[in-house]
Amino acid sequence: MTTPIVAGTDGSEESLAAVGWAATEAARRRVPLSIVHVLDPRFASAHAQPLPHDRAGRFRTDLPHRARSALARASRRAAQAAPGVDLRIAAVFGRADQVLTDLTARVPLLAIGTRGAGGFPGLRLGSVALRLACGARCPVVFAPAGTAPVVGEIVVGIDDCDEAAAALGFGFGEADVRGARLAALHVWAQPQAGRLDGYHDWVLSVGPVNQAAAALLAEQVAPWRDKYPGVTVTESTVHGHPGRTLALASRGADLVVVGGCRNGLASVPGLGQLGYAMLHHAQCPVALVPDAGAL
């Protein structure tokens, strides 16, 4: 049986954006989509055993109303995004961050919103998303609320910390299945304070060429060019702040792919600086890809 792509939902608009993204991706890959809602175990009754809905789309009546509502909304969003997708629905009792992180050891791809229904208004990244980013064992796509136009470009961001092979492999695979272009972007130096405040600053910053960085990027990209000869690729070495530069590049992309650098920030163990910056500032969905040693 083909392993499904998984999308986590709590009924929030951000999680529904992730469901829509995952449904479209499942249709592209011709695999099932499994939508998972995690319930607080404190609300479990003695007889409640959450299971997938039946073929008619009915949900168990012993599930809390909020869970049934969240799953129903997610099912509708998936059907709208990818009519006919092979859809499975499940509810699980437990802590959302633990349940979803455990799932990443058994599935090829998981999608989640950048934040859920709880937390502080205006917060870009929720606690569940942050913990999943730090501990996931498979690629995870974090989808912000709102829809963006399809521009046909995947951006793979690479910095000195990055595990480039895993990120490039995922990015090339995505570009291939979508028929999209791929832009491999290596940010090789820190700019002066106050630089790169807009798109034109980013374009101007491309001027200085670091030959060593260009050679390293070409070496990293070469095996994937050979594996995916149908993918149109551009390679750019950019002088700038990695997070800010890639956030600006995300404005013209359908997906930004970065590696899951496991040395992490001092304040966020397990998550690299580039991944952290993208989860907070990217203008499109972000794929965080663990390095091979973490898979």
Put the structure in a nutshell:
With 295 residues, the chain is of the alpha/beta class.
Would you kindly provide a written description of the structure presented here, covering whatever features stand out?
The chain is α/β, with parallel strands linked by helices. The protein folds into two domains: 139 residues, Rossmann fold (3-Layer(aba) Sandwich); 142 residues, 3-Layer(aba) Sandwich (Rossmann fold). The chain contains nine helices and ten strands. A ten-stranded mixed beta sheet has the order 3-2-1-4-5-10-9-6-7-8, with helices on both faces. Helix 1 links the parallel strand 1 and strand 2. Helix 5 packs across helix 7. The protein is globular.
Produce the secondary structure layout.
Blueprint (H helix, E strand, L loop, with lengths): L4 E4 L4 H17 L3 E7 L25 H17 L5 E7 L2 H8 L6 E4 L13 H9 L4 E4 L9 E6 L5 H15 L2 E9 L9 H7 L5 H17 L5 E7 L2 H8 L5 E6 L12 H9 L4 E5 L5
Helix pairs in contact: 1-2, 3-4, 5-7, 8-9
Descriptive keywords:
20% strand, alpha/beta, Rossmann fold, 10 strands, 9 helices, globular
- Average pLDDT, rounded to a whole number, is 81
User: Proportion of β residues?
Assistant: 15-25%
Query: Using only CA atoms, what is the Rg?
Result: 19 Å
Report the biggest beta sheet as strand number plus sense, adding barrel if it closes.
10 strands, mixed
